[in-house]
Amino acid sequence: MKAFDYAGVSPREVRQMIREGKWTLPTPGMCKGHVQGNLVILPKDLAYDFLVFAQRNPKPCPILDVTEPGNPEPKIVAPGADLSTDLPRYRVWVNGECVEEPTDVKKYWRDDLVGFLLGCSFSFEGALLEAGIPVRHIEQNRNVPMYITNIQCAPAGALKGPMVVSMRPIPAAQVPKAVLCTGRFPAVHGSPVHIGDPSLIGIADVNKPDMGDPVDINPGEVPVFWACGCTPQAAIMDVKPPFCITHAPGHMFIADPKDADYAVF
Amino acid sequence: MKAFDYAGVSPREVRQMIREGKWTLPTPGMCKGHVQGNLVILPKDLAYDFLVFAQRNPKPCPILDVTEPGNPEPKIVAPGADLSTDLPRYRVWVNGECVEEPTDVKKYWRDDLVGFLLGCSFSFEGALLEAGIPVRHIEQNRNVPMYITNIQCAPAGALKGPMVVSMRPIPAAQVPKAVLCTGRFPAVHGSPVHIGDPSLIGIADVNKPDMGDPVDINPGEVPVFWACGCTPQAAIMDVKPPFCITHAPGHMFIADPKDADYAVF
């Protein structure tokens, strides 16, 4: 079975399958139309700074849910779910180093841990595709190209750092539509942060992304940059917290709401 | 001098005037087009719950800025300003009781205090007026009518409670436009939470608001309800925190950004 075979299965059923250890692969393509989220789990003492950082930088840090300290249930976006078991693969970080990539984090769970789910670009990419706008890295079956920019996030407590962006080449005539149809989703990164000349945001070579894969930019296409959910993880890793858990790249949490639930118009 | 005489004065100048004690009256009408914010100042231990509460209930709790603990400068919306001096009147609360209504709170300031500025309905009322939609309580020179609903906010830590809403009667044909033009401002309460029959959200008599003044609802008009910034203050007062400071009603903080800066489309 491939991820796309689960496109029509409910989030609850897929989470159950993941919880039982029957699915340990990336989640893109599963539960089509439902929101997938990035996971960050922090001790409560750093959770406050993280909340403020997210509040000050909503485009790269769109929070979908915050759990009560010690309770791994994301009550807003998936009542009954368990953030310590319901993702297919995690990364456990100690002093900023990844020490394990387990398929659950039950043994690491503590009474002071707070789970954050953050919106991800899968949601607005669905909107782009539905609007007839190509999404190159999907066409080319690659990871989206990501870049560290010279746009500084507003710092909060110990957390600071540059904004990370993802790039999608858009045919020039479709750029306005791409702005409008992603702008409908401010809770999942929203409208682009930059359109056109990469050097204006500190990107030396658009063909050499800092993370992910390069994609083809065809004649007549404009590189369009959106705030990326890697931004908050990068800010956290920068402070090398004593303890932290994240999802493994591509192994997201699948929530109950649909992408459309986050549209503001 | 009346508030409207300061419609064209900059926020920085008006804040300076307030800081020097030369203006101690309500702020509506001052610095036209600039955002005015509700103030809540909390000790850091309760600030975390408040941030989570706001994250879970963004419509009634639209946070514009959060200060660093101990520092009264709202660096995002008004660099150089001072939340302990730049509002014309405050309320100081001890164990849930208002003990003083001073014109500054310098003597109460502490190293563990965090200031929150929350969006207010003045911003979207400007948008309604510009769209040619009447705002009845302004026409009638009254306070906006506010109601405690049966819509429960998502709780967070110690904070819970019902959503408080404000009501504006809108001519039926203009209701869609009122939805669209306030929906552009999700950071300042956004689109309505309810349109029409007040009983569906637990309001027994629309002519008897829980706070504020009743206003006339003319034939052919529909009562339209927006989430109200009184909601978070009510949730805080419900837990009777040992210490808390708020603005006095109508005596808001005038920030640098313009209302238009918060429009998402």
UniProtKB/TrEMBL annotation, chains A, B:
Pfam families hit by this protein: D-Glu_cyclase
MF annotations from Gene Ontology: lyase activity
Residues in the signal sequence: none
Coiled-coil ranges from the UniProt annotation: none
Keywords: Lyase
InterPro entries with a match to the protein in the record: D-Glu_cyclase (IPR009906), Putative_hydro-lyase (IPR038021), UPF0317 (IPR016938)
Highest taxon, organism lineage: Bacteria
Keyword Lyase: yes
HAMAP family: Hydro_lyase
Family: Belongs to the D-glutamate cyclase family.
Protein name: Uncharacterized protein YcsI (UPF0317 family)
Source organism of this protein record: Aminivibrio pyruvatiphilus
Lineage per the UniProt record: Bacteria, Thermotogati, Synergistota, Synergistia, Synergistales
